[in-house]
Amino acid sequence: MSRTHFVGIAGIGMSAVARVLLARGLEVSGSDSADFPVVAELRALGATVHVGYDAAHIRGAATVVVSSATKADNAELLAAGLAGTRVLHRSVALAELLTGHRAVAVAGTAGKTTTTAMLICALQAGGGDPSYAVGGEPMGGAGNGHHGSGELFVVEADESDGSFVAYRPHAAIVTNIEPDHLDHYGTAEAYAQAFRDFAATVTGFLVVCIDDPGAAALVGTGDVRTYGTSASADLRLLGLATDGNGSSFEAVLRGSSLGRVRLQVAGEHLARNAAGALLLAVELGLPAAQAISGLESYAGVRRRMELKGTAAGVRVYDDYAHHPSKVRAQLLAARDMAGAGRLVVVFQPHLYSRTQTFAAAFGEALSLADEVVVMDVYGAREEPVAGVSGALVADAVTKPVLFEPDRSKIPHAVVSRCGPGDLVITLGAGDVTELGPQVLSLLEAS
C-alpha cells in the first residue's frame, strides 16, 4: 500500500483508513462525488483528492481501495480492472494495516461508534497511544483515524456487508444484535450468523452485552466475558442513573467494585456502551481507575446527539440513528434531556429496504416524541422501490405527525411546531443533518 487510491475517499470508513496511511507517511490519493468538508482535511494532511471520478485518477496507484458503496460501473474501478491494479475492499485494506499490532474490534447493530470512541478514551487515559479507525468523528478534533505508537489498534467493525470477519482481532466487543441490513443478508438468521462468524475470528477473548438477547447468544462460543445490569454479568452496572446532564453507574466486576463511573453523556444505552469499553480495557490489563477516568473524559462523537445550537429558547440536536432500536434509545435519552419541554423530531428514513422492513417499528419508536416530521426516504446506494416512502413510517406514528416529502418545507414545519424550552432532534443517516442549521436560522429570525 505504498501508493493507495480511494474511490469514495470522503466516506467515514474510507477517510479513516486514508488518515492512518497518511500518518504513516505513505502516498494517498482519492476521489469523491463532491467537495465534502473532509476533502479539505485530507488534502491538508497530504492527500491528492479529486472531485468527480475519472480513469486517469488511478494512474500510478499500487492499490485501489473501494467500499460496498462503490458502483460496479465506476470509471476508476473499471480502469483498475483493465490495468490489473490490485483492488481491495476497505475492510481488507484496514486488515492489512493491523499487521504488527494487537487488534481490538467493536461490533454490534447499534452503539459501535460510541463504544469504540469510549474505548479509545479509556486506553489513552492509561498513557497508551493506540492506533484506531472509527466510523465517526470524536469531539475535540481528534479525527476518525490515527496512527499511534502503541501496540493496540482499535477498529470499529462494520457488519453491513459481512466484511468484518477480515480483522481477526485479539479482543472484541459485541454491543447488541438485532436484524438489520437485510438487503445484504436476506434473513435475520443470516444476519445473526454473521456475528457468530465474527466471534469465531476472535483469537483472544470476546466481550458481549448480556442484557441483549442477540449478543447474549454468543456466550459459549469461546472465551466470553459479559457486561450489563443482569446479575449474571461479569461486570454489572449497579445504581444506573441518567438525566439531562449525563449518566452514572457503579461498576462491579465479579463482586468487587471498581468505582462509580460518571459520564458526560445521557442515556442508559450509553452507560452500557461505557461498561463494555471498561470491561475490555480492564481485561487487557489497564488499571480500572485509569480506564474510568478516560471514560469520564468522553465528550461524544459528531452526529451522535450533537448539539447544533440554541435559538429562541429551543435546543437543536442532530443524531445518526437510523435503526428502530437506535431511534428508541436516543429518544428515551432525549426525553430526559428535554425536561419539561416538548420533544420535536425530524426523521429521515435511510434506505428503501430498511424502510419497507421496519416502518412499523420506526413508527412505534418515533411515538416517544411529542411531534414528528417524517421526510422521504434517503435512498443512498439503493434505487426507489414502488410503494415505499416515508409515508409508511408516518402512518405508523401515533403522535401528531407530518409526512413532508419536500425538504425545503421541513425547517418551517419544525419551527411552527416548537417553542421556548423545547428540544428538536434531526434523526437519520442521510442529509437530514443539514437541516439543523436551517432550523436555527429561522428560530433566530422569528
Textual characterization of the structure:
- The model has no long low-confidence stretch (mean pLDDT 94).
- This protein starts with a strand and ends with a helix.
- It has three domains: 3-88, 3-Layer(aba) Sandwich (Rossmann fold); 98-297, UDP-N-acetylmuramoyl-L-alanine:D-glutamate ligase (3-Layer(aba) Sandwich), CATH 3.40.1190; 306-445, Protein-Tyrosine Phosphatase, Chain A, CATH 3.90.190.20.
- By secondary structure, the chain is α/β, with parallel strands linked by helices.
- It is 34% helix and 24% strand.
- Strands 8-7-9-6-10-11-12-13-14-15 form a ten-stranded mixed sheet.
Give the % helix. Answer: 25-40%
> Given the helix and strand composition, which structural class is it?
alpha/beta
- CATH homologous superfamily of the largest domain, by name? Mur-like, catalytic domain
In DSSP terms (H or I, runs of 4 or more residues), the helix count works out at 15
Averaged pLDDT, please? Answer: 94
The shape, in one word, is globular
Report strand %.
15-25%
Q: List the uncertain runs.
A: none
For the report, how would you describe the main beta sheet?
10 strands, mixed
How many domain modules? 3
In the CATH hierarchy, what is the architecture of the largest domain at level 2? 3-Layer(aba) Sandwich
CATH class of the largest domain: Alpha Beta
Strand order of the largest sheet: 8-7-9-6-10-11-12-13-14-15
Q: What would you report as the Rg, rounded to the nearest angstrom?
A: 22 Å
